[in-house]
Amino acid sequence: MQEAFHKERWINTHSVYQVSVIDALMQGVMEGVISVKELLRRGDFGIGTFEGLGGELIVWGDKAYNCRDDGTVVEVAPEEKVSFAQVTYFDRFAPLHRVEGIGSTEELEQKLSAWTLEDPNIIYAVKGHVDGAEVELRSIGRQHKPYPTLVEASKEQKIFRHSGVSGSVFGFLFPKFMMNVNIPFWHFHFLADDCSCGGHLLDMKADSMNLQVYPIFEHVIRLPEGKSFSRIRLCDTGEMEKAMKDVEG
Questions:
Q1: Which of 152, 171, 237, 238 is the most exposed place for a label (fewest CB within 10 A)?
Q2: Which residues span the domain enclosing 188?
């Protein structure tokens, strides 16, 4: 019985549930796919965005937060719709590490490679905590039909800079062979401990970070329904990575 319990916990914490695919979002498929209430049944740790974009989504514990384009952070109502997200049950038993001297998000990615280079063909989740950091965050406001592409929408992004902030970094790394499914490089969101700020993490400086990073081996996708998704042409990878880097920063 106990062995079965541990096996189930391991599977749940090493599986990711994804809403929609990044290729669809890039092409303007921004309709809501599932509710926040349903998303919270699938995991307690994650990131994403809402119907029509409408802010940056962070899932932590039994709550979902919207980091809005006016710089505020609000807890999200259960009926709100999600257009793109990835959630997992965070493995709190993952080893805790400490990294020093983070001068940028690029340096953070380099430090994280100590845990990801050995096997670049799987998914990774990371949660880190910093004190007194400098962060550069962005959020994109709600778009309206007919929805633009994500590249077009990102031109209206709002950028916020904060100093002396303590908070958590939430991130995922998907392998390159999943380029049309999800972002094929580290994707970070940030939430201050007091929820005074949050959003997509563009840059960060911190003296140190305590972090947990672990591999994910199972991946489930909930695809959108409707004509906006069925009519687009997926799997054209030619400019996909460049476009995503332009959007994600």
A1: 238
A2: 2-233
Residue 243 lies in a domain: no
| 5 confidence band (pLDDT: 50, 70, 90) | very low
In a domain, 247, yes or no: no
Instruction: Answer whether 87's CB lies under 8 Å from 45's CB.
Output: yes
The pLDDT value recorded for residue 13 is 73
For the ranges 112-126, 159-173, 226-240, the lowest mean pLDDT is seen at 226-240
CA distance 184 to 174: 5
Into how many domains does the chain fold?
A: 1
Which CATH number goes with the domain that contains 82? 3.30.1330.80
Model's pTM, two decimal places?
0.91
Average pLDDT over residues 162-180: 96
How many angstroms separate the CA atoms of 172 and 184, rounded? 9
